[in-house]
Amino acid sequence: MVAIFKKIKMLKKLNLAFLIVTVLLACEQQPEMINIDWVFVEGGTFEQGKNQFIVSPKGDTVEGFTSPHRMVEISDFYICKYEITVKQFKAFCKSTGRDMPEPPIENAYGKVVNYQWEDDKPMLATWDEANDFAIWAGGRLPTEAEWEYAAKGGRKSMGFQYSGSNNPAEIGWVGENSDSTFHEVGLLKPNELGIFDMTGNVGEWVYDWYNPSQDSLVNSINPQGPPEGEYKISKGVSWYYNTQDERGKPLKYGIHMPEVRYQSPRDTRNDGFGFRIAKDI
Length: 281
Description:
The protein is an alpha+beta fold. It is about 20% helix and about 15% strand. The protein has five helices and eleven strands; from the N terminus they run H-E-E-E-E-E-E-H-H-H-H-E-E-E-E-E. It has a four-stranded mixed sheet. It is globular.
C-alpha cells in the first residue's frame, strides 16, 4: 500500500513538472508584444484629390500626380499615430523568425551613407514587409483614400493644404529643415487628429495598386484602388523635396500635399519609404 501511495505522489510531481514546462514553452512561443498608439478616425465624406495641379519648387506643373478627384465615403477606422519604427519592426522579425533587413547603403541623392538602424526612426521597409507587419500586428495597410482623409484631419479638418498646417515645415521634415535625412518619429506638430509626420519625413506605403487607367472603375465607398497594377502607391512624400519658393514662402500647392501619390515597385527600399498601419473598427 505504501508503495502505491509513493507512486501516486511521484506521478503528481511529474504531472506538475510537465505542466510547468508546457506553460513556459507556450509563453516562449507567444508573439513579441509591441505598443501601437491608435487614433480613432470618424468616417465621413470628403473630396479626394482636390488639388490636381502640383507646382514644384522648380516651377514645374505636374498633372496626374495625385489621387483621383472624386467624392469618397469613408467608414470609421483606426490609424496609428506614428510611422512604424525600427524598434517595432525588430520585434516583428524576432516574433516571426525572420532576419532584420539590411539598411540602405545610399540615400536619395545617391550618396553612400551606410545607414545603421536606429530604434526610434521610421522603418525603411518594402511594401511586402510593411504589409506583412500590418497583418502580424492585427491590422492592415491603410487605403490611399483612408490615408488622405486622415492626413487632412477627417471630420476635424481645418482645411490646411498640408497635414496640419499651411506651412509644411511646421509639421513635417522637408527639404528646408531636414538636414538631408529623415528623423525620429513624432518630433514636430501633429495634425488635427493628433497624427504625426503625414507630411514629409518618409513617404508611406498604402494598400492600393497604382493604375490610373482603372481609377474610374473603383467604388467611391471605402475604395481600395484598382484590382491590379505594376506599382504600389506611397503618400506624404519625404524629407528630400523643398517646399518653398525663391522668396522663402511656402508653396500653396506643393508636392507634399496629401493629394500627391508616388508609384514605386513594391520591393523599393530607400530612405524615402516607410509606413504606418490601420485597422477596422
